[in-house]
Predict the structure.
Amino acid sequence: MNFKKILIPALCAVNAVFAATVYQNQVGFVTNGLKQLVVIDGVGKELSLKDAGGKVVFSNTIPEAQAWEPAGTNGSLVDFSEVKTAGTYKIFIGDEEVGHPVIISDNALEGVTKGSLKFFYFQRASTALDEKYAGAYARAAGHPDTSVEYHASTGHDATLNETFKAPKGWYDAGDYGKYIVNSGISTYTLLQLYQQNKAYFDTLNLNIPESGDKVPDILDEIRWNLEWMLAMQDKDGGVFHKLTTKQFAGMVMPERATAQRYAIGKAVEATWNFSAVMALAADIYSPFDKKFAESCAKASEKARMWANEHPNETYKQPNDVGTGSYAGANYWTTKLWANAELLRISGNKAFEDSLHTLTYNRTKASLQSWSNNLLLEAFTIATNPSVFAKADIDTAKALIFYLADGYMASLENNGFGIPMAKGDFYWGSNGVAANKGMVLIHAYILTKDEKYLNAAIGIADYILGRNPLDLSYLTGFGVNQVMHPHHRPSQADAIEAPVPGMVAGGPNTGANDASSCGIDYANGKPAAEAYYDNTCSYASNEVAINWNAPFAYLVGSIQAILATGKVYDTSTAKSSATYELADIPAKDDATAIPSGKVKFSPVKAGSRLVVKGNKVLLEKTAADGTKKYFNLRGKKLH
Ligand code: 9MR
Ligand code: 9MR
């Protein structure tokens, strides 16, 4: 709980004096970056910062207060960016100390960058966490996932009780499920972070078991998840939607959650998503492990074949399954994203055609999320201009700036300096905030205009404490921290403090878990206070990889940019490897699909790919001249 600071009036005081309240980033400000804080009820008073010796290093009159609707109160934004000497300062309004220590240092965001990336290590399935890396949070291995059964929804005969192996990967969230659709965007986001800040991340030590090998730690961590994703691809190229138990486990440690796990669903959203991520991985890992990179390219290609063939096989949650559904993702946007990634690693113009012929309206920008990947396509195209056609680059930039400039506009007369509107406070609002930060960083990369970087810094500040709850939403960091996230290991271990480095979902006016909590914590509250720091609250206080990843992207990018003075140069961007991919354009209307060579599932002599109706089929001609047709999964049709 937090209370606004109230000064108890001294007995002799004539009037009760209510001190102003300060909301601020509680972790730290990078020396050469933007530095702001918010004051409530302080207009016209003098705010100063004093160093350890009591010397005033900054002083200014608190400006006019302005509204920020989600806080339900007006705030005055004080800018103290001019303080450029590293140190720890105290905030005073008049003679009274307020707020929390202001920490300024060159690497102020390095701790949260490492911490939010280390979260992924703590989320590793199928391995024990050693004390050497996990400290007090060391734990036994859970979920080997070496005998996963096929749920009937995969198309496999479930009565055979066949099993397969799909170990590793990251637990999605506070639950122990592994879901492809959500893994995909999280993995992409972290790969972008690496790709755009290689110099910084090549040497950043995360203290994980692979630290010290020749591969950057961030890539070692991501590979843990990629290897699981690869195992989720069925022999025909289709990708299973998720790997979970049928129902959620109790609030127990991983090793005690031992119910049978299943591959559930095989669907087009997961398959396009997988295809996109594997194509990008094929680029990024090529300098480190060619063989692995090639296997990613091959898997991506195979997935594309399947997805093209099964456009209508969207995921539907089976009746006997109660784990997270991640159903209803807009697969058109995922398909566009995959085609952009495939084009990037192959230069094969067939993928460009598919970007142009998909019927999805690419002018409708919406923030990236597990259910909408249009911006992922836009990020990839805009930051790799050498590969794409001018019209596509223009579209991609238009999408990014439509959003980024909208956020900039919302900062005008905004008392908290936070580009979040009332309507943004739904399930995972901190993920929304961090993803907006990712859009702004891309706008900065594309223009080098500092206003975008500064707006992104404001979002990092918001998550780290510049909010009306005076709370750092990142566990383990800040003065007032989230203590009771919905996260099974944090709840089940005997340690009071939760696993560090986790971003809580954040305020959610929907309070979709009110029945589980027994109270409607959103009732009567301003949007940015519709939050409950209680383990019951999975809709405001769960943690998840798709919220941590954009947060890591945000703080990691800010730290890397400010520390190195370098910004990703899109003019030199190019894929590390070029892959020869089959050139069947990914058209929805398959009638125009020409036959072509299929590199990774070779067509034998006497066979060829043909288009019949709306499908690409494999035609085999027997010695007597009769023709037989198979689908690309090898199933005989007629
Ligand atoms: O722990 C589950 C969390 O990961 C999900 O986001 C949430 C909504 O699907 O459900 C949580 O599990 C709860 C279940 O839905 C209802 N019974 C209590 C479970 C733990 O709070
Ligand atoms: O992040 C997801 C959110 O957008 C949905 O509204 C919500 C309900 O379907 O589910 C969230 O994802 C949860 C997933 O279903 C299961 N693991 C925990 C995820 C975060 O709460």
